[in-house]
Amino acid sequence: MTEVVEGALPENAELVEARFCGGPLLTLLVDREDGPVDHEFTSVVTSKVSPLLEEEGYDGLVEVSSPGVDRPLTKPEHFRRFVGHEAKVKVAEPVDGRRNFTGRIENANETSFVLKLLEGGAEVELPFGSIARANLKEDI
């Protein structure tokens, strides 16, 4: 389904995350490089994506939204793009006895990233395959 959505997005737009919320509601978090993710943009995306999803057999509701300030980090390129920003990361299996990490993204490659922890300043390298959930942690 993500391939269908990604193929229908306007140029310079990116599918950050697709998730089912509360029954047959498909929520698409979409970002773009060339402007805001406003009502006009989400309407355009919905009108392009919905018919293609129906052709694939999906007959539920589609909601298109901005990823927001706590933007999910779902791909290695997201971590590379947000080097220097704070993130909250939960891993599936404990690393050094813990599952939750909050820190500044120091660097990222194809297989892992380094997080400088806010508490204590230690650095921890986490493989992308270990991530259960990761989000930017922006203070407003």
Labels describing this entry:
single chain, cytoplasm, 3-stranded mixed beta sheet, RimP_N_sf, ribosome biogenesis, 5-stranded antiparallel beta sheet, GMP Synthetase, Chain A, domain 3, about 140 residues, Ribosome maturation factor RimP, SH3 type barrels, Ribosome_maturation_RimP, about 45% strand, alpha+beta, 8 strands, elongated
Query: Order of strands across the biggest sheet?
Result: 7-6-5-4-8
Order of SSEs, N→C? HEEHEHEEEEE
Number of domains: 2
Structural class: alpha+beta
Secondary-structure blueprint of this entry?
Layout: H1 2-8, E1 13-21, E2 25-32, H2 39-55, E3 61-65, H3 76-81, E4 86-95, E5 98-108, E6 112-117, E7 123-127, E8 131-136
Parallel strand pairs: 2-3
Antiparallel strand pairs: 1-2, 4-5, 4-8, 5-6, 6-7
Characterization of this structure:
By secondary structure, the chain is α+β, with helices and mostly antiparallel strands. It has two domains: 2-65, GMP Synthetase, Chain A, domain 3; 76-136, Ribosome maturation factor RimP, C-terminal domain (SH3 type barrels, Roll), CATH 2.30.30.180. Helices cover 21% and strands 43% of the residues. It has three helices and eight strands. The protein has helices spanning 2-8, 39-55, 76-81, and strands at 13-21, 25-32, 61-65, 86-95, 98-108, 112-117, 123-127, 131-136. It has a five-stranded antiparallel beta sheet with strand order 7-6-5-4-8. Strands 1-2-3 form a three-stranded mixed beta sheet, covered by helices on one side. A hairpin with a 2-residue loop joins β4 (86-95) and β5. The longest helix is centred in the middle third of the chain and has 17 residues, at 39-55.
